[in-house]
């Protein structure tokens, strides 16, 4: 049995978790989810019925992990030999930007694509303030840093990089030079290419 069971769909956020699985080099068995007929094992593990959902068959029992950012963080913690964890000096940036991407960035992008307008006088109530403020803050970070934690790639780049990469691909974030350059660095990762290749092949198969 593989160490991890991975419920996914190639056209989904499952792409983020697949990349994280490849970066850590773990053995996993994928289950491609049919949206109209979700497997009972997925629903038992994650009543939200969402992908990605990962089950780690650890030596001490099965561990269910959901939410892309948490999956990335978990895989880095469970597989320290992959050297994707932050050093003490990198920890603040690692946590700060991973949570920033999972919260404010995701909400800002989603709100814009849904056409939800935040009235100026209520920006103080929403965690992302405004789309421009959130994306500008992220852009400014990458004006001075190659990766989330400076010059070294960590697991935070799998999650933050995926948000940036996805947003640029679908035009939901502006093609600011700092973000485009960051996405270029992310896309150069061999494990990014390997994981994307698998999902792209699955998408091709589904289109036949
Ligand atoms: N907060 C979750 C979101 C997961 C999510 O919304 N996944 C979508 C695909 S991208 C899904 O499973 N949709 C199927 C459904 O909701 O039935 C995460 O970050 O992993």
Automatic annotation (TrEMBL):
SUPFAM superfamilies: GST C-terminal domain-like (SSF47616), Thioredoxin-like (SSF52833). InterPro entries: Glutathione-S-Trfase_C-like, Glutathione-S-Trfase_C_sf, Glutathione_S-Trfase, Glutathione_S-Trfase_N, Thioredoxin-like_sf. Residues 87-208 form the GST C-terminal domain. Residues 2-83 form the GST N-terminal domain. It holds the Pfam family GST_N. This is Glutathione S-transferase family protein. It comes from Novosphingobium aquae. The lineage of its organism: Bacteria, Pseudomonadati, Pseudomonadota, Alphaproteobacteria, Sphingomonadales.
